[in-house]
Design a protein that fits this description.
Layout lengths: L2 H8 L3 H10 L4 E4 L2 E4 L1 H14 L8 H6 L3 E5 L2 E5 L3 H5 L1 E5 L5 E6 L2 E3 L1 H9 L1 E7 L4 E6 L9 H17 L2
Antiparallel strand pairs: 1-2, 3-4, 4-8, 5-6, 6-7, 8-9
Length: 167
């Protein structure tokens, strides 16, 4: 395949194809002053480029409300509280009529009820601050043997990022 056809296939300029060929990014041979591009190598390069085009996650008041947050505005502050942060972390509980936990799991693995209480107590609040565009949290006093506070916090952030990216 010549550079023009390869450029159309890869949705880049012919100069980019020539640069890739010179640098060895794609397999190509130069015959009579023209590059002949290997189609399989070009297909692999296009696939690699497609994997790198990950959609950037944008946190905003609108996206946080869309995933279930509650907006709060007072005294010049604009926040969105994520009250169901445990679901984003992968903490699932069922309760008796009394309110006590009857069964629990963390990221799909069953955990004891006492460890579930400790997981839920490891983080007190999660909110998005519109002023700085970041997600904040306040740690609680409990720490589980199943996961540390930092691991739970990381799971919360990953869950929120995944939910926002799915919008």
């Amino acid at each position: 395949m010549n550079t023009t056809a390869a450029a159309q296939t890869a949705n880049v300029t012919p100069a980019t194809i020539r640069t890739w060929a010179r640098r060895g990014v794609i397999a190509a041979t130069k015959t009579a002053g023209r590059w002949i591009i290997d189609t399989a190598s070009l297909a692999r390069r296009i696939e690699i480029g497609a994997r790198r085009l990950v959609r950037k996650v944008v946190y905003s008041v609108e996206t946080m409300v869309a995933i279930g947050g509650n907006r709060w505005q007072r005294n010049g502050m604009d926040r969105v509280y994520i009250n169901d942060w445990a679901a984003f972390a992968g903490i699932e509980t069922t309760h008796y009529n009394t309110g006590n936990i009857s069964s629990a799991s963390y990221q799909g693995a069953g955990v004891s009820n006492s460890q579930a209480y400790k997981l839920l107590g490891s983080i007190d609040k999660v909110w998005f601050d519109a002023a700085d565009g970041k997600i904040h949290g306040r740690f609680g006093y409990d720490e589980s043997r199943v996961a540390s506070r930092d691991e739970v916090w990381s799971a919360v952030i990953t869950g929120i990022r995944t939910a926002v990216a799915a919008l």
